[in-house]
Write a structure and sequence with these properties.
mainly alpha; two-stranded antiparallel sheet; two-stranded antiparallel ribbon; 20 helices; globular
Amino acid sequence: MTKTTGFSLFGIVKSNYKYVLSILATIIMAVVLYTDAMDLPMKFLGLLFLVSVLLIICLPRKIEYATVAIILLMGGISALISPINDIPDERVHYARAVYISEGDINLSNKKANLKISEDVKRIDEHAGQTIISETLKGTKHSTKEFIYPEVKMTNAYYSLSYLPQVIGISLGNLLHLPLVATYYLGRICNLLVYALLIFFAIKLAGRLKQVVAVTSLIPMNIYLAASYNQDGFALGLVILALAVFMNMLQAEDNKISGLKLLSYYLLCGLLVLSKFTYFLLVILPFFIPSTKFDNNKKLVFVNKILGILIVTGFAAIWFKLYGQVKIPILADFLKQVNVGEQIHNLIHSPLVYGRVVFREMLVNVFNLDNILRFGGLTYGTTNLFTLYAIFTVFVYLNNATKVKLHWWTHLGVFLVIAGITGATVLAMFLTWTPVGSMVVLGVQSRYLIGILPLLFLLFTSKNQQLEKISDFLSTKTLLNVALLFDICMLLSTIFRYYN
């Protein structure tokens, strides 16, 4: 009995030795690249190596379960080792989650209505501290409140985007957990919801499961999902919506039901509240061949029109409400921001300012290296971006011919990519860039992560040569490589704060 078990264990290790060696090589490479310290955090390195090896050896066969396992494990580690409020904009997102947990659903311009628990002040005072710090461990939840106008910095997102974090905070307070434990619980709950959204997305993606899985494992996605930043929830919604679209693209003739179309429009409506510019996904069903829908073509057409009108109207209302809450001016350059004057410049000098917007669109589509920059965008693994770009090319080659799209669908995908990119840059040009500036401020690569699955769709092909190399890489190999980049993300954080 013992011999059989030993042989079986040896066989498992032997069959996965390439993956084990790749993890070891990645850790060694990260030591060379990301730290000059000689006194390495060996306990962290050893534990991460052991956990990663066990993960890749025991990885479930079904891709949706395997992907969720990587998200939960890598994201869980990230949630715990990332210092307090170190993740982009986490300070105000945490404040908004606390604000909502106290029953305050909507923001207000009146300072008296912006009272919030002193938990926010206490956490903010310990920003940058890690989980091994001792100072916050005895602190309990406080019912005392103070006015916190900076919570209005989150007014572009509705309360729904913070529901996962709010659940974590509310549960922690209900159980009378120490404040720091409640803080980390909020991060973990956000991660759990992201993993759940990705699970359903991969289930729906059909022959494009690998594309959805790899996109969901982008280091920045996991990093944001394991935080208070609402982008984790928003990116989960974007990927789920695109998976529904991919599902419809792969449907046989007359098989797309009105219910599936309605569910897609519902997701687009939710995106208005969490990732405004992505509501443009609502036009994609118009570029699906009409033969794929139910037989009543007129009814389908009317449903498409109604869906677009409802979501667009909803977006217009939300944009109006968003503009009514005035964000506090926290930097001198914001005093020079004026939406009206920027619009005037665009109308009267379209060649000058239109070029500024268009240039920023191109720069951000072709240079997404910030998806590998973490913390306050002060450290990361951006020197691996070329390798990551090569990896995505291999993912593309593995999946390029799995879905054959009509030229009309390619056009629609292109228009939506351009529309989302343009709307994102334009929003920052109008609301974050001083009047007259020749550079658009505030645009970050993470805002455009959601278009990556669309880029895969845009370049799908019927090329017979590409078809010959389809699936030349196994799903486990692709997931392993994605895991290696996530390990590098964790190591960059460890070397930054735990040396």
